[in-house]
Design a protein that fits this description.
The complex is a heterotrimer of chains A (533), B (271) and C (315). Chain A has 533 residues and is an alpha/beta fold. Chain A is 35% helix and 25% strand. Chain A contains 19 helices and 22 strands. In chain A, β7 (169-173), α6 (181-198) and β8 form a beta-alpha-beta unit. Chain B is mainly alpha-helical and 271 residues long. Chain B is built from 9 helices and no strands. In chain B, α1 crosses α9 (235-262) and α2 runs parallel beside α5. The longest helix of chain B is centred in the last third of the chain and has 37 residues, at 171-207. Chain B starts with a helix and ends in a 9-residue tail after the last helix. Chain C has helices spanning 2-28, 34-39, 45-55, 61-73, 87-122, 127-141, 144-158, 174-208, 211-218, 223-261, 266-275, 279-307, 309-314. The radius of gyration of chain C is 24 Å and the shape is globular. Chain C starts with a helix and ends with a helix. The chains are: A alpha/beta (533), B mainly alpha (271), C mainly alpha (315). The interface between B and C is large, with 44 and 57 residues.
Chain lengths: 533, 271, 315
């Protein structure tokens, strides 16, 4: 008998159909992963189980937890079920905790709100649970506030809150998407361990197929509010029936063909670069302290080369990116492009800047919403002494848009008329338009769905062939860096700990940190191998 | 467009219209006294009655609207004209001595409520409508500086600003080309609110004699004059009071409506 | 926490110093010589000179500023030009009316605004919310001195529940004093309460959209429990800012309201001083008002730290 049984569940919010006849089930002790791209309705399925849907939602179908029909349970009875019979873990650990209350209070609240124990017993139970999720009281007292913990530690607190009363079902909505790979591996291990230990069912929502393959007993693939395929993990991976499932897996492990890099000829030289940030004064009459974000980094990027820069959040890769772009001054060392410093004296060197462009992560935030596409992508013309005007300008716009797979007519549209993937193409067009010698891709595909990501990576490879691009590809995603770069730098705590040919570094990492990164990253199984087994 | 916006715009334009028409026409000369016909309640000849000198209330209210609007409008202009560039500059140089100076200066001005500024100015230079404008205007500067800086700071974090910096544009150019247009909605809404607060402040200053001096009619002054007669001629107090309420209510409704219409996510500090 | 408080205290001292400089120099540019003004046009030059030195007007600007500030620090605000009596006693007498009035009004405004704002947020979009929002929309638009006149008309003149004005003095008993200040306090408090209630409501509505509110609901808290346990304290952060700002409005407002009720407070003192060009009194009262505003903002900063643990550890 299943613990959670969803059959033919439909959901509409106002007049928009979000879920169309979804059916799935979770047995006690079973890990079921729901996966799909954005807009597939996977998170709404989770919220429907909690009955925490947005306003104006209408549901139909059946949704039973341990025999209780949740769709026909009134709100007070639902309150008694949430936290006691079902626990939930959310995506954003940084904002999921109340900033003004201690972690002990917040874990205890789950117990006290259900009047499960008297307060002093609840405090003890909270301490036990926090200890179980890896936050022992001697290092993480109950009186800590959320802002004193890292993202991974906060996620542990959220998990502790969810399992404090040993619910029968745990729902985890993208629980590791906001975390670094090494932290992700630890949190996934913790969740697996808890399921085994408490015999809970786990309904896990994630877009990451490698995580799915690694964690789940069963997989549910969703698209546009419908379940397209479901089955036991190994069987499903070995024999994917639905074309969408096959496309999804193919896109996740998508590899591109880069043309061969030309003979080495240095373009960008970073020589013992040091970047300090001033910390806020802690004492009134002492000099403010400094935080060294980049600690004497050196490397060379050759013309025509595709170089990767990987590292976890806070390792200094974004700071290094801004220093290369000449947006911030260095406190030591030098960065030169074609022999010229990117930052001369107190101001950025515009003569050098025009040889560099950048593509950012956020396809929604990197454009001024009030300008049309032609104005957006010609912004780098500002760097030129004689920017093209009239027909020359129109031709440049048309060429750049065509190069990234859009139409010249798109120049007259506003940015909100484009999808995330199209916006990223426009961002690339903006970088290409002045034919820079170097492009920096700063987490440029990290916010995209896998199928869109695969297309953008293909576009990169095409552009490499057409324009002999030289780029620095900055990312936390090892699998992407592996396919689009010739050489890779691994950065940890402001230093480059390893560098070398991409394949060599990935297949035989030398530095222990590189090894831990590669070990922690979940990998997609090879369907062919599964079939044979 | 919401009901709030339409209603607010209607009420506000009614008052503005009255003020404009008063330049060319009022039912009576607002300075003409008529002692025998004093303290009339509203009637067919004097639509809103007459005051203790027999002057026509309707005419005085119309001309009073002029004073109120002029003072509040110029005060908002001073606040925006100085506050917005200061806020943009502070955000563009976040954390620098300039930012620190502007923000500390703001804190200092916040410690002087507009009434206190008016008292100081009047004590030194004597009373008048100009004082009221300066006092309210000075108090508006930090309001606009703060709200502009706050909104601009979050925009500076956005990647499209980073893209403009990569394109080699200077901080000044980015501030005017990218930041200002994106905070304009916020400023319009805040401007409406400060305008209504200016109307209230002008009334209060004239009430205590620090604003417009006779014979310039002003709603606050009319209320001050009515105070000793309120027990037997309540309309002298009710009518200017209602004029103030209608104006302020109209502006506030318009501000709320504009905020929802221009951008539902917009947050405006109402203080 | 201690470090944070010390830092705020230092900025308080700096603000006060700069504010005193500003006030001193504004008064300093005033045309006319107070000594000749006090003695009238027929005074002998040597009597004027004697008075000038008695008032310290013959010293340099720097000396006079320092002695003014030094005097204030010891509670000596100088001598009134017109009354020839110490400003400090005049101000102290009046302060016992104005300060209780401002505090009374602040208390009333908070007591009305908090429940109204929380109630409206909890019933967002329903009839109760609409009623509160409509009332506050009107409350924000009403000038407090006009509202005060209407209160006098209704409750003092027609119903005769309160006196129409004046103040019996605290020596006639605390209750008599509070009774005399009640109408003025209501007149001051209601328009401010309207603003505060709106701020409380919108702060709560913002918080309701936060991730941690959803977490709280996932733990099994009802909508109302989540609002009270997690919403209100977080909403206090923006609300405290407004309360701090409002204190300066209340203080300024009380000066105006005193005119309606003929209360012998700072307002009456300062307007008399303006008409008699008694600049030293104006200077002292303005400095006192500014001191009050700066001090209240300091207290608000401390209250932030009590509410928000992030501030306590950051600095």
């Amino acid at each position: 008998m299943s613990l959670l049984e969803i059959s033919n569940l439909s959901l509409s919010i106002r007049d928009f159909e979000v879920l169309k006849g979804v059916s799935l089930s979770v047995a006690p002790g079973e890990i079921v992963a729901v996966t799909g791209e954005s807009g597939s309705g996977k998170s709404m399925t989770a919220l429907a189980v909690m009955q925490l849907l947005p306003e104006h939602s209408r549901t139909s179908g059946r949704l039973t937890l341990d025999g209780t029909d949740l769709l026909n349970t009134n709100e007070p009875a639902m309150c008694a079920i949430r936290g006691r019979s079902v626990g939930m873990v959310f995506q954003e650990p940084m904002t999921a905790l109340n900033p003004v209350r201690t972690i002990g209070d917040q874990v205890m609240e789950t117990i006290l709100i259900h009047k499960a124990m008297p307060p002093d017993q609840a405090r003890q139970r909270a301490a036990e649970v926090l200890d179980r999720v890896g936050l022992p009281a001697d290092r993480f007292p109950l009186s800590r506030y959320p802002h004193e913990l890292s993202g991974g530690q906060r996620q542990r607190v959220v998990i502790a809150m969810a399992i404090a009363l040993q619910p029968k079902l745990l729902i985890a909505d993208e629980p590791t998407t906001a975390l670094d790979v090494t932290t992700q591996a630890q949190i996934l291990d913790l969740l697996k361990g808890l399921v085994r230990e408490m015999g809970m069912g786990l309904l896990m929502i994630t877009h990451d197929l490698a995580v799915v393959a690694d964690m789940a007993d069963r997989i549910v693939v969703m698209r546009h509010g419908e379940v397209v395929e479901t089955g036991a993990t190994r069987a499903l991976l070995a024999d994917m029936k639905h074309p969408y499932t096959r496309m999804l897996f193919a896109a996740s492990g998508h590899r591109v063909d880069l043309p061969a890099a030309p003979a080495p000829e240095p373009l960008l030289r970073v020589d013992k670069a040091v970047r300090d940030y001033r910390l806020p004064r802690t004492r009134l009459f002492t000099a403010p302290g400094h935080f060294r974000a980049v600690k004497g980094v050196s490397f060379t990027l050759n013309r025509g080369e595709r170089l990767g820069l990987v590292g976890e959040s806070g390792c200094g890769k974004s700071t290094l990116t801004r220093a290369i772009l000449g947006l911030e001054p260095l406190q030591g060392g030098a960065i030169t492009l074609d022999g010229e410093p990117v930052f001369s004296g107190t101001r950025p060197n515009l003569a050098v800047r025009r040889k560099m462009q950048v593509v950012f992560q956020d396809p929604f935030g990197s454009f001024n919403p009030r300008h049309r596409v032609d104005r957006l992508i010609t912004e780098p013309f500002h760097l030129l002494d004689n920017p093209p005007t009239g027909t020359a300008r129109a031709e440049a716009i048309a060429e750049a848009l065509t190069a990234v797979g859009l139409k010249p007519e798109d120049a007259g549209k506003y940015i909100h008329q484009f999808s995330g993937g199209q916006r990223q193409r426009i961002a690339i067009a903006r970088a290409l338009i002045i034919r820079p010698e170097l492009i920096l891709f700063d987490e440029a595909v990290s916010a995209l769905d896998v199928s869109v990501r695969a297309q953008i990576l293909d576009l990169l490879a095409d552009l490499c062939r057409a324009y002999n691009l030289t780029y620095l590809f900055i990312s936390h995603d090892l699998s992407v860096v592996r396919t689009v770069t010739d050489r890779v730098l691994v950065m940890q705590a402001g230093e480059i700990v390893e560098q070398g040919e991409t394949e060599a570094v990935f297949s035989a990492p030398q530095h222990p940190y590189t090894r831990s990164l590669i070990d922690a990253a979940p990998v997609l199984p090879d369907p062919a191998a599964l079939k044979k087994a | 467009m919401s009901r709030n916006l339409i209603l607010g715009a209607m009420l506000s334009s009614l008052v503005v219209l009255a003020a404009l028409v008063s330049f060319v026409w009022t039912p009576f000369d607002y300075t003409a006294m008529n002692i025998p016909g004093k303290l009339q309640t509203p009637n067919a000849t004097h639509w809103l009655g007459t005051d203790h000198f027999g002057r026509d209330m309707f005419s005085m209210i119309m001309v009073g609207a002029r004073t109120s609007i002029a003072v509040a409008l110029v005060a908002v202009g001073i606040g925006m004209g100085l506050g917005v560039p200061l806020g943009l500059a502070a955000a563009a140089r976040k954390g620098s001595w300039l930012d620190e100076l502007i923000m500390r200066g703001n804190d200092l001005v916040f410690a002087f409520p507009s009434l206190v500024i008016a008292i100081l100015i009047t004590a030194v230079f004597g009373a008048g409508a100009i004082n009221a404008i300066i006092a309210i205007g000075i108090f508006n500067i930090p309001v606009f500086a703060r709200i502009t800086r706050g909104a601009a700071l979050s925009l500076w974090e956005r990647e499209f600003i980073m893209a403009a910096r990569v394109a080699g544009k200077s901080a000044t150019r980015i501030s005017f080309e990218h930041i200002l247009p994106n905070v304009l909605n916020l400023l319009i809404v805040q401007g409406t609110i400060q305008f209504s607060l200016g109307i209230l402040a002008e009334a209060a200053l004239s009430y205590v004699g620090l604003g417009a001096q006779p014979p310039t009619p002003s709603w606050g002054r009319m209320l001050a004059d009515s105070q000793t007669m309120v027990s037997f001629a309540p309309h002298l107090a009710l009518i200017p009071g209602c004029a103030i309420i209608v104006t302020v209510l109209g502006l506030n409704l318009m501000g709320d409506g504009l905020r929802d219409w221009l951008d539902p996510r917009l947050r405006v500090a109402r203080a | 926490m201690l470090r944070y408080s010390l830092k705020r205290l230092l900025s308080l001292v700096i603000s006060l110093a700069v504010a005193s400089l500003v006030i001193f120099f504004v008064i300093e540019v005033a045309p006319g010589d107070p000594a000749s003004f006090m003695l009238g046009i027929n005074a002998q030059p040597d009597t004027v000179a004697a008075l000038r030195s008695e008032l310290g007007l013959d010293q340099s600007k720097v000396e006079r500023y320092l002695s003014w500030v030094g005097g204030m620090l010891q509670g000596d605000f100088g001598t009134s030009y017109t009354y020839r009596s110490p400003v400090s006693t005049m101000v102290a007498d009046r302060l016992w009316v104005s300060l209780p009035l401002a505090i009374y009004a602040l208390a009333l405004s908070t007591l009305i605004a908090f429940p109204a704002g929380i109630y409206a947020a909890a019933r967002r979009g329903k009839a109760g919310d609409m009623a509160v929002m409509g009332a506050t929309q009107l409350g924000v638009a009403v000038p407090n001195f006009w509202f005060a006149m209407m209160l006098v008309l209704i409750f003092a003149i027609n119903l005769r529940w309160f006196g129409a004005g004046g103040f019996p003095g605290w020596d006639k008993g605390v209750w008599a004093g509070i009774h005399a200040l009640t109408l003025p306090a209501i007149a001051l408090a209601l328009p401010q309460a309207a603003i505060l209630a709106r701020v409380m409501r919108s702060a709560l509505l913002d918080i309701l959209g936060e991730d941690f509110m959803r977490t709280a609901r996932a733990k099994g808290l009802s909508r109302r429990q989540a609002l009270w346990r997690h919403g209100v304290r977080n909403a206090l952060i923006p609300v405290l800012t407004i309360i701090g700002l409002q204190f300066s409005f209340l203080l300024a407002g009380s000066i105006i309201i005193e005119q309606v009720f003929y209360l012998p407070g700072l307002g009456r003192l300062v307007f008399q001083a303006i008409s008699s060009r008694d600049l030293i009194v104006v200077e002292s009262v303005v400095m006192l008002l500014v001191f009050a505003v700066i001090t209240v903002n300091f207290l608000v900063d401390l209250a932030y730290a009590a509410v928000d643990p992030r501030l306590r550890s950051r600095t």
